Amino acid sequence: MTDAELVAAAAAVRERAYAPYSGFKVGAALIAGSGKLYVGCNVENASYPLCVCAERTAIGTAVAAGETRIVRIAVITDTEPPASPCGGCRQVIWEFGPDAEVIVASVSGLVQVTTIRTLLPAGFDGSALLR
Ligand code: THU
Question: Does the N-terminal peptide bond of residue 98 adopt cis geometry, omega within 30 degrees of 0?
Fold first, then answer.
């Protein structure tokens, strides 16, 4: 799957975002270690701290399907420049994909490609705990 196809999958699921409070719809699509595609959107709640980001929805779906590795993840928003994953999502991407490519895109067509290592230098991981 090309980066453009991955962004298209993120754009499609973004339409399903449940964002009545912020109005800020986010879509995410990832390629897991198996090569399969998983998608997610943000899911808000009237109790604001319970809102779940699109990235974490997609990652949770992948893990529930038996995946443990993220190879690439695309995130799309209606902003220019494209919005980057929040700090919490960077940490969750890092858990499953320290070598992951991160593609950020805007619905207007802007696309930027980076890596989770760039977005989260010196990320915290299980090596500190599993000693
Ligand atoms: N949001 C995401 O889905 N991903 C991010 O990386 C940043 C923020 C969502 C959460 C909330 O529903 C809305 O965007 C506004 O913060």
Answer: no
